[in-house]
Amino acid sequence: MIKSLRQLKPSLNGKNLLCFPFAGGYSVSYRPLSLALKSNWGVICTEPPGHGTNRDPLQDDLTKLIDLYEEQLDDYFHSPFALFGHSMGGIVTYELLGRLEKRGIFPEVAFISGMAPPHIPRVKRQHEDDEKFIALLRSYGGLPDEILQERELLELFLPVLRNDFASIDNFTYTEMTPLRTKIHFLSGEQDVVATPEVMAEWSRYAQRSEFHRFPGGHMFPVKHADEIAKLIQRVLTDAFVL
User: Which InterPro entries match (predicted)?
Assistant: First the structure.
């Protein structure tokens, strides 16, 4: 397995769900989802440079990171697959999907979660001082309390998180026509980063779309993996690809 990829669940039918993590996340972030999925599909997650077990230097250029994923995932694009990305991973999913469609490659379906669409201005956070940045992370609910309350442990995570926030802050979306692949957009009912109303604005970017709300704030996929897994299973069943 390539070091930027991790297999969380083996495929029993040659089909795979390809997952892209949120800022600061890595393959383990999707383990609850992979365990909750009751299907023959495999689950592959990207392991960003400098995250988890990938000891390569951090990459703060999101375009280059997508280049890397497109290259390393290429073998999976020649059999049935689906895409899932939350927050920063939602940007990756959208951009990668646009590239693949230009190549004539179409996944069965895609899922974009918790990320505002391209036309919504982003508030840049990478240069916040530590206290404001930590308060921001706490509001997202993305780090366990034991890390947030232990300063020495938290300082190990801050460079990775700041790197990922910088990659989002500095990224410019590619202009493209509405995508042909059906995209399911997921939002948390209490998410203050990408509210359900903001997520609804994605409708202009996909020819076919469906919107889903879940309980919780920005990190709802972590806390409601079982419910998201049920949605994915239903969607794949409806597409006759389970």
Answer: AB_hydrolase_fold, TEII, TesA-like, Thioesterase
In DSSP terms, 188 is beta-bridged to 214
Confidence grade of residue 237 (pLDDT, cut at 50, 70, 90): confident
Domains and CATH numbers, the chain: 5-119+175-238 (3.40.50.1820)
- 96-111 as b/e, with b when 16 or more CB fall inside 10 Å? bbbebbeeeebbbbbb
Q: Which residues are catalytic?
A: 87
User: Smallest Cα–Cα separation from 84: which of 137, 2, 27?
Assistant: 27
Contact 133, 140 (CB under 8 A): no
126-164 per-position pLDDT tens digit: 778 888 888 888 888 767 777 777 878 788 889 999 999
- Report the half-sphere exposure of 185 (CA within 13 A, side-chain side): 25
Contact 182, 109 (CB under 8 A): yes
Task: Residue 148: count other Cβ atoms within 10 Å of its Cβ.
Answer: 17
User: How many C-beta atoms lie closer than 10 Å to residue 185's C-beta?
Assistant: 26
Q: How far lies 29's CA from each of 20, 21, 170, 178, 183, in Å?
A: 10, 7, 24, 30, 22
